[in-house]
Design a protein that fits this description.
mainly alpha; globular; about 65% helix
Length: about 220
């Protein structure tokens, strides 16, 4: 079981190593001030840049705004918070939201979870390809969190069913932990996953590329 100490150390590390963290605060402030589309686009252009940059020239903001408006009732239907919510009670709403967003060029599966978190931060957690197990399994075993026995590799499907399964797994794993200040548990869990899975796995990938260059 993950300890509060390890959890807190990980989220503190996120703040030190990831300079883009303030964009989430800015995006939430925009949304809470009535600039919903602007807040969502801010995150797409900063935290979903790897995909969004290829679609930005063709990205239709008016169509995007209409799609967000269409799924807002589904967001409103979802009540509760991450620690105690019964995700199975909201499968239909989550399916509609997730599929609507992930079908948009420049957003896809990772971006969908980011926008869902921004719209409903008390419920939804973000994920990326590293966190959902998309990468070669052998390198997950090199992660310190794996060696410590705090992590078990699992590959999730990219569809809404896989995302719901991920949410339930994260709820089971993290609901007992505390967070400091106003930060929602969902954001803290994402930070934990990011510094213990995404960042170190990216370092492994970089080292592999360096080693290949040396051989050449």
């Amino acid at each position: 079981m993950i300890s509060n100490k390890f959890f807190s150390m990980s989220t503190n590390k996120f703040g030190k190593e990831e300079k883009r963290t303030d964009f989430f605060k800015l995006a939430r402030n925009l949304i809470e001030s009535g600039y919903e589309i602007e807040g969502l686009l801010l995150i797409l252009s900063t935290w979903n840049f790897a995909i969004f940059r290829y679609a930005v020239k063709e990205f239709d903001i008016d169509i995007f705004s209409k799609q967000i408006k269409k799924i807002k009732p589904n967001f409103y239907n979802i009540c509760g918070n991450f620690r105690f919510i019964d995700f199975d009670s909201y499968v239909t709403d989550i399916k509609i939201i997730y599929e609507t967003l992930s079908d948009i060029e420049g957003i896809k599966n990772t971006g969908a979870s980011k926008l869902m978190h921004l719209m409903k931060p008390e419920v939804f957690i973000m994920w990326d390809g590293y966190i959902r197990g998309d990468k070669p399994q052998k390198h997950y075993k090199e992660l310190e969190i794996y060696k410590k026995g705090e992590y078990v590799y699992k590959k999730y499907n990219k569809d809404f069913e896989g995302y719901i399964e991920f949410l339930k797994d994260m709820q089971s794993k993290f609901k007992h932990l505390n967070t400091k200040g106003k930060k929602p548990l969902t954001k803290a869990v994402d930070e934990f996953n990011y510094v213990n899975i995404t960042l170190p796995y990216q370092q492994i990938e970089k080292q592999i590329k360096i080693n290949k260059r040396k051989i050449l």
